[in-house]
Amino acid sequence: MTAIASHANARPGLNVGAMLKEAGLTALVALALTFPLVGLRTVDVGSRLTITTRFDEVLISVLLVFVGRIGLILTREGHALPVLVVSLVVAVAAWFAPLPSEILRVITIAGAAVLAIRAVIAVRRDRSTLSQQERDRAMDRLGARVQDAAMWIGPIAVVFAIALPFMPFASRSVVDIGILILTYIMLGWGLNIVVGLAGLLDLGYVAFYAVGAYSYALLAHYFGFSFWLCLPLAGLLAAFSGLVLGFPVLRLRGDYFAIVTLGFGEIIRVVLLNWAVFTGGPNGISGIPRPSFFGIADFDRRPPEGEIAFHQLFGIAFDPMHRIIFLYYLILVLALLVNFFTMRIRKLPLGRAWEALREDDIACTSLGINRTNIKLAAFTIAAMFGGFAGSFFATRQGFISPESFTFIESAIILAIVVLGGMGSQIGVVVAALIVIGLPEAFRELAEYRMLTFGMGMVLIMVWRPRGLLAHRDPTILLHPRRSARQQQADSEAGA
Amino acid sequence: MTAVKTGTTANTGSTGEPMLRIEGVHTFYGSIEALKGVDMQVQAGEIVTLIGANGAGKSTLLMTICGNPRAKFGRVVFEGEDITQVPTFEIVRRGIAQSPEGRRIFGRMTVLENLQMGSITAQPGSFDRELERVYTLFPRLKERQAQRGGTLSGGEQQMLAIGRALMSQPRLLLLDEPSLGLAPLIVKQIFKVIEDINREQGMTVFLVEQNAFHALKLAHRGYVMVNGNITLQGTGRELLANEEVRTAYLEGGH
């Protein structure tokens, strides 16, 4: 605090009086607000309600507001660098300082972080003489370079994903989070076909996830079908539901299309909820069989008579982790399958037609593209992948209920696609790590994790409005030795 | 698809069945009648132009040929077949390619990808040959082939739109206002290419234009449209000399 004050004094041209007045006024407002809200607290003592005071917290809050305001003013007046340093110091100090409550600590750190970010923005704005457009282009080039690097980042990521269960830090919870993230990566890649490539805003993708999950659960429940039989069946049923929904819906455009898919997602959930005799209603379906090792062996400690367990098959000691690791590899393979499919189909006429459709559907018609069929194909294929993911979800959980398929799931999957940059495969991975991984990693922060999650989303949309990796890869190479991206960058730089 | 290519030389006014015949076509936007009984025809190997003021219904006629919107009354006959009720994408497959108004290229796709989109309905294996042909017509596109469509200049985008339409190996090329928003020098280049396509490849061209002077100079025959009706027709030279055409579309403007 004194650092800021003395620094401010040293700078000529800064009206210290006005600054203190403004900060004092803000502090006064903070005092008026925090005194009743923070300072007084009702506590149950025995059967009586008494009031305790927390004036120390009020004092700290008001002080923080005062200092924060000065920081904002200094940033505004062009002293961003010292503000950045001080706010970072404050953030670190707040981490270790003996503050009266954890909430105060979180608020202090968050406030300092916001201040630091604003200072960074201010510093960069002062330093760079580039126009907004030039800066956007620079970011695009960066995005292109990142995706160029994807040539080796991709394989490295896959190798890492394969090695993950055998890393020393791979506890059960790490592998579980890995499974969760991979499930969302798969869903994101699936939805990317509809939203990212074909440009159709689908707000009800979770419906196909639900169809897949319930297909497996019900087929196993009523007919005793195994997972390996149900996996393709669930995909087929989900694809069929996509086809059935697609026919009437795909004539709609834009917002209307989005609303109908939203409705479809809810219809599926409500049907599952109310058709209690068949689906178990709100109680869901429990006891969904776990997947076996390709139908050869299962993962029980003591298999039933006449069957063999996984650990016996390989002559190793029983470990409950075997099943988890198997599930992990299963979803990894499924997700990579979706990725491989999308990468291939982008280079085929169908995939290219999807992208063209996203850009300009009138032009597409004038080129002889049957819009309805193309859209239907995107919708059905994405639904099928959603169905695969759903049946995986069912077998992993062992229990499903309509609770798992609410609109928020659709929203999260869509957020992954949009944040990643529509149509970008690597972007989906990065976004899934952020959207799913971060809240899981910061579970200790309890309810504040959703707060930081929201802030992260806002920041991404402010800095990268078209998504993290919005750069689009050309699908054909001219001279295989040089990358198409590089050629594009070169020729556009010369344009 | 019949594999017969039309003659390699421009043969104006040939007798027999015209390539495209429009008979008494009425098109409506809701309750508004945009075309009020249009009759016209295009012979194989011709360049035919349709001129007229803003809102006369020129683009509507072009779109009606492609079936979007559909003609409410009347017939559109292409190579002897009634295509009035044929779906738009199927019409393109039968050999009519369109370079739509406002160019409508795919901005985020590269030039090469745009051209590839054009060949989506073409016979398999024709891509390389057609690409070579388009690059010969528009060397600029070859220079820019790895560039995103959206970063091209207006003239280059127009070249791309025409090139993309040509990639589908059409027998009839529909062009909607290729001169729209372009500098006079570029307009000249574009019209030169249209002439080349017709003369060297025997491509039949139906050209909708506001730039009446250039269009009529280029075209073998022309039609003038006023308020959804064809009011005048004749050879390009005749129309250029016509007093009505001169006062309405040529004088003052050029």
State the gist of this model.
The complex is a heterodimer of chains A (495) and B (254). Chain A is mostly helical. Chain A has helices spanning 2-10, 16-39, 55-76, 80-96, 102-127, 132-163, 172-197, 206-223, 227-249, 254-274, 276-279, 310-313, 321-346, 349-359, 361-366, 371-397, 407-420, 425-441, 448-463, 484-494, and strands at 40-45, 48-53, 285-286, 399-400.
3D architecture notes:
The complex is a heterodimer of chains A (495) and B (254). With 495 residues, chain A is mainly alpha-helical. In chain A, 72% of the residues lie in helices and 3% in strands. Chain A contains 20 helices and 4 strands. In chain A, helix 8 packs parallel to helix 10 (254-274). The radius of gyration of chain A is 27 Å and the shape is globular. The model of chain A is unreliable at 1-11 (pLDDT under 50). Chain B folds into 2 domains: 17-95 and 172-254, P-loop containing nucleotide triphosphate hydrolases (Rossmann fold), CATH 3.40.50; 105-169, no CATH class. In chain B, 35% of the residues lie in helices and 25% in strands. Chain B has helices at residues 58-65, 88-93, 111-118, 127-137, 139-143, 154-166, 184-201, 212-218, 236-241, 243-250, and strands at residues 20-29, 32-42, 47-52, 73-78, 81-82, 96-99, 172-176, 204-209, 221-226, 229-235. The longest helix of chain B has 18 residues, at 184-201. Chains A and B meet through helix 14, helix 15 and helix 20 of A and helix 2, strand 6 and helix 3 of B. Chain A: The chain crosses the membrane at residues 20-38, 58-74, 81-97, 103-123, 149-171, 177-199, 206-225, 231-250, 257-278, 324-342, 376-395, 407-436, 448-465. Chain A: Keywords: Cell membrane, Membrane, Transmembrane, Transmembrane helix.
